Amino acid sequence: MNPKPNNHITTDDLAFSAYLKMKGHHLIKSDQRKSKSFFVFEVGALDVNQMKVEFINSEFLSFYNELRNLKKLI
After folding, report:
1. DSSP conformation letters of 20-62
2. pLDDT, the chain, mean
3. Is the pTM of this model over 0.85?
4. CA 29, CA 37: separation in Å to the nearest integer?
5. What Rg value do the Cα atoms of the chain yield, rounded?
6. How far apart (Å, rounded) are the C-alpha atoms in residues 39 and 12?
């Protein structure tokens, strides 16, 4: 995940991208380089490090991890 000077953040983390969308941040662009996808979001003047901490402590991350575990069963 890379902060950009123009208040954008680029990440290849699908869970974090979904969290940002859920929190109302606008997806500016998605890009695929080789076999990896990247997402660019508008985050305004928010503290990127604080956003990461909120994501790690969120119930959303627990949900995402459980979803991944269930997908492994099928």
Report:
1. HHHTTPPEEEEEEETTEEEEEEE-TT--HHHHHHHHHTSHHHH
2. 89
3. no
4. 11
5. 13
6. 6
